[in-house]
Amino acid sequence: MESLAHLEALCERLYTSQDSVERAHAESTLKCFSVNPDYITQCQYILDNALTPYALMLASSSLLKQVMEHSLSLKLRLDIRNYVINYLASRGPELQNFVVGSLIQLLCRITKFGWFDDDRFREVVNEATNFLSQVNSVF
């Protein structure tokens, strides 16, 4: 991928193009993010730096596929979980609803898969309660 701007343009074509050839080209170019675990850090980079909701959606849905289709280490799954919780806490209110929904789906899926692996996955209920009480105290 040449640049973040190029990636964002491809993501927009992937999600909005009416041309099936253009969409298929974007999908084949971006597929590496969802099939290769080496791209997990790039997905986090996209979440941290991309400006378009389509790029954020690509990163979130790619992380979801990675979690579902690969046997990731416990440490990596906990890192992704903590990253998503912190990301939602810091950037959630400014994101498009479809991006928030995808990130919540990722958090739920990683929690489900890790529930019996480590007690830290079970802390999501307390963390969500704390997060929601902080949001409510602002309003």
TrEMBL record:
rRNA-binding in keyword set: no
Cellular location(s): Cytoplasm; Nucleus
UniProt organism field: Ensete ventricosum (Abyssinian banana)
Nucleus in keyword set: yes
Protein name: Importin N-terminal domain-containing protein
Main localization, broad class: cytoplasm
SUPFAM superfamilies reported for this sequence: ARM repeat
GO biological process: protein export from nucleus
Keywords: Cytoplasm, Nucleus, Protein transport, Transport
GO CC terms: cytoplasm; nuclear pore
Importin N-terminal domain boundaries: 26-90
SMART domains: IBN_N
Gene3D superfamilies hit by this protein: Leucine-rich Repeat Variant (1.25.10.10)
GO MF annotations in UniProt: nuclear export signal receptor activity; small GTPase binding
